[in-house]
Every structure is written in structure tokens, then in C-alpha cells.
Amino acid sequence: MKRFLFGFLILFILIFITSPSGEAQSLRHQTEEVILLKIGSNQLWMNGDIARTMDVAPFIENNRTWVPIRFVSEALGAEVGWKQEAQQATVKFGETTLIITIGSNSLLVNGQAKPIDVAPFLKSNRTWVPLRFVAENLGCSVSWVQGAQEVVIRRGQFSGPTVGYIQNGQLIIQEVSGGSPGAKKVVAGGNVTGEEIAGPIAWSFNGLKVAYYRIQKLNFDFFRLALEYSVEVSGKKTLLLSRDKAYGGLKALSWSPGDAYILYDEPTSDVSGTLWLVMVEEQDSAILGEEGEVIYGTFSPDGFHQAWLAYGDEGISVLVLDENGVQFEIQDITGGFAWSPDGGSLAVSTSQGIEIYDVTSPGMPPEVYAFPGYAYYLFWSPDRNWIAGSCSDGTFALYLGWGQTPWPNTFPGDLSLIDRYHPSAPAGFLPSGELIIEHTGEVSSGASNFYIYDPQTQNLSLLLENAEHLAVRP
User: Fold this and answer.
1) Which domain does 115 fall in, by range?
2) pTM for this one?
């Protein structure tokens, strides 16, 4: 099979990852903050905006992420004090007070001693602490993206937009809570004569940005297409590229972890096209997949891999790539594919069923779950227990058994047809575990109605009418 253009560019995609800017508040609850740090970088991002530049950069040592306590704590809104004689830093954050002593394997939390397996130390006149232990004792959650060398700290309860979708030429973001729609906001569209927002749309992995493209008819034969993104917190918009061409579509398909890149497909026929990489900070682009051979591509959540659906000598196949190029190739493709939430596994629909590959061990044979027919529009649940997809009979859910059984008498490999309407397809799992399902053909305008399926009650209820290209926020 013909291979694709890589060179040093792929190395940049998978290793050097940054985040652009944003400002203020929107639907997000006032008390929630999202802080992003990158190993080796002096920049600290707050809710998508570069809040401050540190004079030192976080680093990894002994499998721990070390951060300067003052910069991170003050970014969260905490007060930090220092006692030189005692070599102690005091962090006051709401009702919580932490006392950290240099060289001590004990941390005081509101006067109660808690052990630390590594001791804080002084370096470059800064107090360095193990990030996860300190952040979690301040009531924050910490997540790590290995491929991006990126740390995300979240504080407070999220009550911001849960989904984004297109309706009447506008991009709308909206909360979904308890199976019901809540507050919503128009992000783009509806302000320029003859202009509308087109899909698909794509949320960044940290949920701070949403990419989409605008389309404006210029004359009978040509359209102006512009790919841009909006920072959810502030609504600030950044134009990435604009082209005048016969309509074929520009598709914002996949952000890289860390928000530095977007993969999109520029169709050159009904089924294939050219795979482009957009470098967000530089607002520049480069071709990755050759014209007429790539159908689309996605980044993995771990930042180490990509998966491309592509044409080759043996027909359609899935290529799994890392920074060195093509790792392995999956042939006999009959449907879609989906990354696991941790990015370590890839589910692919083949003639054998749904095959799950461990991408960290390319030589290992896949797990195979027999499936009657073809499986499309695959989505993996946040708890890694379920894979949902579309088939000729409607929308199904396959139970993998990678965690606790959600209800009695459900066993690994069990397949449930949860929605018998056809054509229907999953649109993504909510963080709370419910699945959003799209019914096409119910609306005369060519849009769809969207339903929400509760796996605990097995109820299907109407969520949204007359919309398109719904995407669930990570």
C-alpha cells in the first residue's frame, strides 16, 4: 500500500503541543476553573487563556510531575505564604489550609498529617511539590495526557455546555442535565447575509474549544469556506483558513490533545479526499495524506497515535500511526472505528465483527466480538464498558466487561439493540453515561431529531429537534 507523507511534521504533531487563548465566562459555572500545564513550558493556561508566564517550568522526576507551588496555587485563587526559618509554605484555599515543609514526607491538611511518598524541595528559589498530591488535597482533579506531556487541573463543579450542534445555520452550545436540555448559547452564524455554519464540528480534548466551518455562497458555482474555532469560556473566535472553491466541504474532524493541531479532510470525491493538518498557533496547514487515498483521520486521546481510514491496494483499511509513521494496518474494514477514552485501544468494524486492538502492543492479536452485519459510527463510553454503534436495524450497544457490570445478567460480549428506529446512529456518550442517538429522516428539512438513552432505565426520550452534527463535549 502506498504510504503517506510524514517526515519531521508528525513528530511535531505528537510531541510539541500548545494551547491558544480565551477570556471571560459564558455558560460555565463561576467556580469552575481549568488549568493546563505542559512539561518544560513556562506557560500556564487558565480556561483556554494564557493566564501567566512562570519563570520556571514544570518537570518530571521519579515518575512525579513537579510544579512551583506558588504559581499553581495562586492561579487557582489560593493565598500562599512562606516561613523562611521553618522552611514552610502555607497554602490557604477556601476552607482548606495546607502546610508544606521542605524535605518532609508529611503534609498538614487543616492540621491533620498526611504522608507523601516524595518530599518537597527548593530549587531556583522556588518550592517544588508533587502536583497530584497537593492539587487533590485542595479539592481539584488532575488528569495526565502522556503523549502531550500535559497536565489538566480542574476545580469546582462543571455546569457548562454539554453538547454543540448546528441548527438553522447557527452553531449552538447547550447544557444537558438529568436527560433534559438546559441553558444554551449561539456561538457562531446568523449574523452575515448568506452565511451559515456547516458541519461537522469538533470539540478539543479538554473541552475548552470548538472548531467548525462557515460557508457563504459567492455565486452559482463557488462558495467561501472558512475553518475557525471558538473558545467556549470567552467566545473568542480565531480564523484558521479560508478558501473559495466549488463546494466540497472542509471538515474539522479531530483536535490533537493540547489543542496545537486539527486534522481535517478536504473531499476530492464522494468518498475520499486530502487529509490536512492545521497548525493552530501558526495558522498554517500541511498535507498529510495524499489526494484520493485518505477518507478521514483522528487523533488518539493519549496524544501518541493517529488512525486514518484510507484507500490502498487491498481496498479500505485503517492505518494506526505513531511519531515514527505507520505502526500497523487493519484491513477488511466494514464500518467505523473509535478510540478508547485512554487512547490505548482502537475498536474497528471488520467482517469478523468488532475487533479491539491494543495499540501499545501492535503485534498482539485483537479481541474479537462477533457482530451480525456492519457497524458504523462507533463510540466508546467514558467508563470503557460499552461501545455503541449503528447497524441496519438501528443503534446497538456492546458490553465489553472492562469494569463493573452496570446491571444484573449482563455479560461481556452481550449485544443490545437499544433503538430499533432506522436510520439511527449514536452521537456520543455524555460524561454521566447516557448515550445521545440521532434519528435522521424524521425532519423534512434534512436535519435530525436527537434522543437520549439512559442505560440504567433503558428509556429513550426526545432531547433536541431539527438539528445537525451534534457533538458531545469531552
Assistant:
1) 33-155
2) 0.77
DSSP tag of 366: P
Report pLDDT digits (tens) over 220-232: 777 888 899 998 7
Exposed (0-12), middle (13-18) or buried (19+): which is 145, by Cβ within 10 Å?
buried
Within 10 A of 238 (CB to CB), how many other CB atoms are there?
16
Q: Name, in order, each residue with C-beta under 8 angstroms of 365's C-beta and a sequence gap of 6 or more.
A: none
Determine contact, residues 308/299, Cβ cutoff 8 Å. Answer: no
CB-based contact 162:430 (threshold 8 Å): yes
For residues 334 and 474, what is the distance between their CA atoms, to the nearest angstrom?
27
Listed in sequence order, the DSSP H helices in 76-228 are 131-137
Cell digits for 315? 481496498
List C-alpha distances in Å: 180 to 176, 186, 210, 456, 460: 5, 18, 22, 16, 12
| Rg (the chain; Cα; Å) | 23
Structural domain contains residue 367: no
Residues 376-423: pLDDT tens digits?
Answer: 999 999 888 999 999 999 999 999 988 766 666 778 888 889 999 989
**Boundary-marking domain end, from 99, 121, 155:** 155
Residue 271 in any domain: the answer is no
Query: Nearest CA to 341 among 435, 429, 251?
Result: 429
Strand partners, 315: 312
Concatenating the DSSP letter of every residue in 244-258 gives EESS---EEEEEPTT
> What is the rounded distance in angstroms from the CA atom of residue 9 to the CA atom of residue 6?
6
Contact 201, 166 (CB under 8 A): yes
CA dist 396 and 303 (Å) reads 29
Beta strand ranges found along 47-95 (DSSP E): 49-53, 59-61, 64-68, 79-83, 88-93
Contact between residue 139 and residue 132 where contact means Cβ atoms under 8 Å apart: no
The C-alpha atoms of residue 88 and residue 400 are separated, in whole angstroms, by: 49
Give the Cα separation of 89 and 68 in Å (integer): 11
Residue 369 is assigned to a structural domain of this protein: no
**Number of neighbours of residue 189 by Cβ within 10 angstroms:** 20
CA distance 372 to 243: 43
Is 426 part of any domain?
yes
CATH number of domain containing 51:
3.30.457.10
**Rounded Cα gap, residues 73 and 98, in angstroms:** 11
More confident residue, 206 or 458: 458
Domain count, the chain: 2
Query: How far lies 83's CA from each of 54, 153, 257, in Å?
Result: 22, 27, 39
